Amino acid sequence: MSANRPQARLTIRNIQALRDGGERIAMLTAYDNVTAAVLDQAGIDIILVGDSLGNVVLGHPTTLSVTLDDMIRHGAAVHRGTARALIICDLPFGTATDPETALRSAITVLQQTGCQAVKIEGGAPAAPTITRLREQGIPVMAHIGLMPQAVHQLGGYYVHGKNAESAERLMETALALQHAGAFAIVLECIVPDLAAEITRRLTIPTIGIGSGAACSGQVLVVNDLIGLNIERPPSFVVPRADVAAVIREAACAYVAEVKNASGQSKETQVD
Ligand SMILES: Nc1nc(=O)c2c([nH]1)NC[C@@H]1CN(c3ccc(C(=O)N[C@@H](CCC(=O)O)C(=O)O)cc3)CN21
Ligand SMILES: CC(C)C(=O)C(=O)O
Ligand SMILES: [Mg+2]
Q1: With a 6 A CB cut-off, is 211 part of the ligand 1 pocket?
Q2: What's the pTM?
Q3: Eight-class DSSP state of 48
Q4: Which of 5, 158, 205, 228 has CA atoms 20 to 30 A from the CA of 177?
């Protein structure tokens, strides 16, 4: 091995090794080149090009408006900005409705973005799709619990697995998706005790969001982490910065400077 060789990109085998070695997996979303590059520099293990793109970047009320072309444009930008992180792209609403449709979608995403894996929302019915993609060499991250693409079916965003029947169904689904060949599984807004139990029962990594601290790793929407939202983020989020305030203050200072300038100064000159 050459000492000069650049740091190789993490693979799904590295992610499994982190879980097996008891090291937590740190995952964030990103949608653009510069943010992805900064997260990569920070040592993030996995970057998800999430279909939350629709809410946090494109200004849609739900993720349902996001298209495969949207994911490809942003997925390619994220991949170009990174060298180390494993990059996963969400398959958006309507692009994984059956195994063959999902396979076509995933092939297009991998070919046109450079991303290494896709994530698919879905319960037990997603199992044949996961198996089909895996047979073609495409790693799939599963996603259960709160599935935002099903918001109209669910009737809102809330915590899942609160009663015994729903808890049992989620446990069985997680086992079925692992058996189908998922390399990891997102547990979104699942009761923490149940998420812990699922994490103990599975051999693949679990990645939690709003599901307590016992999962093999955690994921957050990057805008929620850095405080770059207009609307209040979900209550499980602990923001680490107030980037919206930083932007607002810089823009206010700029506006004031331009308005108050008597003539052309170096700072306010427009090329
Ligand atoms: N900014 C952002 N962050 C996310 O985590 C996120 C998105 N957008 N868009 C797509 C989905 C939607 N998600 C959401 C959205 C809302 C809640 C939420 O407000 N939950 C309530 C609990 C409501 C209840 O239990 O009744 C909360 O207060 O956290 C949770 C996850 C997660 N994803
Ligand atoms: C919140 C994560 C898991 C996601 O699916 C997204 O950002 O789209
Ligand atoms: Mg998503």
Answers
A1: no
A2: 0.94
A3: E
A4: 158
Tens of pLDDT, residues 135-179: 999 999 999 999 999 999 999 999 999 999 999 999 999 999 999
Helix (H, G, I), strand (E, B) or coil at 33: helix
Query: Where is 207: in which H helix or E strand?
Result: strand 206-209
| Rounded CA separation 92/106 (Å) | 11
CA dihedral 20, 21, 24, 25 (to 10 degrees): -60
Q: Considering only CA atoms, which residue is closest to atom 18 of ligand 1?
A: 234
Q: Which residues line ligand 2 (CB under 6 A)?
A: 29, 48, 50-52, 90, 186, 188, 209, 219, 221
What is the value of ipTM here, to two decimals?
A: 0.94
Question: Does the CB atom of residue 57 touch ligand 1 within 6 A?
Answer: no
CB 85 within 8 Å of CB 113: no
pLDDT digits (tens, 9 = 90+) for 5-46: 667 999 999 999 999 999 999 999 999 999 999 999 999 999
52 is annotated as contributing to ligand binding: yes
Instruction: Kindly state if the Cβ of 189 falls inside 6 Å of ligand 1.
Output: yes
- Amino acid, single-letter form, for residue 144: I
CA torsion through residues 16, 179, 106, 156, sign: negative
Q: Which member of 23, 165, 168, 188 is catalytic? A: 188
